[in-house]
């Protein structure tokens, strides 16, 4: 299976070339084109684990209840085109199995069948991040696609770094984090116009996005006309 990220600036997408025997899992709604010799199925399962509760947990992590499953139906090669909902970049991550990956809500896009998807409870600190209580945890060896709102940046962290909660895309679980204020006091934090931040520490890879979809939605929402019944 070959993953090709097609970079079109703010409108990146991914072309996945599949061979007979390949199996791909993607977030529901990511597909926009597909070869005629691809069978598309709907599942709540990814890897060895799954079922109804797995779908519920994915919803709590900002993903969809169902996932899309793709297999080649004959002996010919096939192609699948995938794109994120929001405009931004797509990143291909090679998971080597030495560390698991943690995807922030909504950033997971697709993965090869060798990777296992689960949900990771953030604990009570998740209540204060402004994000979902659960993250998507990815383990095993294989390739994974994640998407970002705006530009995505890879950071090889060896030490400490503070990131606004709404700008985290994915990170290796070798990194530890705590949630805190951007300044020491609540008043100062409110005056900066910033929210809570995630203070990362350790050694590992971290992907961040340049724009915050929640802030964008809060700005755009009041400008839209009211819904008609």
Could you provide a short overview of the structure?
This protein is mainly beta.
SSE layout and pairings?
Elements: E1 2-6, E2 13-18, E3 23-27, E4 31-34, E5 38-43, H1 52-60, E6 67-72, E7 78-82, E8 90-96, E9 101-103, E10 108-112, E11 115-121, E12 134-147, E13 152-164, E14 168-172, E15 175-181, H2 186-192, E16 196-209, H3 213-220
Antiparallel strand pairs: 1-2, 2-7, 3-6, 3-10, 4-7, 5-6, 8-12, 9-12, 9-14, 10-12, 11-12, 13-16, 14-16, 15-16
How helical, in percent, are the residues? Answer: 10-25%
Counting helices, strands and paired strands, the structural category is mainly beta
Instruction: Quote the average pLDDT.
Output: 82
Per DSSP, what share of the residues sits in E-state strands of 2 or more residues? over 45%
| CATH homologous group name | Mitochondrial biogenesis AIM24
């Amino acid at each position: 299976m070959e993953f090709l990220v097609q970079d079109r600036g703010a409108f990146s997408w991914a072309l996945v070339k599949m061979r007979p025997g390949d199996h791909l899992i993607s977030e529901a709604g990511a597909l926009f084109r597909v070869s005629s010799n691809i069978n598309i199925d709907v599942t709540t399962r990814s890897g060895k684990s799954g079922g109804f509760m797995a779908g519920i947990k994915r919803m709590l992590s900002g993903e969809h209840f169902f996932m899309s499953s793709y297999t080649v139906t004959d002996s010919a090669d096939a192609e699948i085109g995938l794109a994120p909902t929001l405009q931004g970049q797509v990143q291909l991550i090679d998971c080597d199995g030495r560390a698991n990956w943690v995807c922030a809500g909504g950033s997971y896009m697709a993965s090869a069948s060798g990777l296992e998807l689960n949900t990771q409870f953030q604990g009570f600190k998740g209540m204060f991040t402004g994000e979902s209580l659960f993250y998507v945890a990815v383990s095993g060896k294989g390739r994974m696609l994640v998407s970002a709102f705006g530009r995505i940046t890879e950071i090889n962290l060896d030490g400490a770094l503070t990131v606004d909660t709404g700008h985290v895309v994915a990170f290796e679980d070798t990194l530890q984090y705590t949630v805190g204020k951007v300044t020491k006091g609540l008043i100062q934090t409110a005056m900066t116009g910033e929210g809570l931040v995630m203070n990362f520490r350790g050694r590992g890879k971290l992907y961040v996005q340049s724009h915050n979809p929640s802030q964008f939605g809060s700005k755009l929402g009041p400008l839209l006309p009211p819904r008609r019944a």
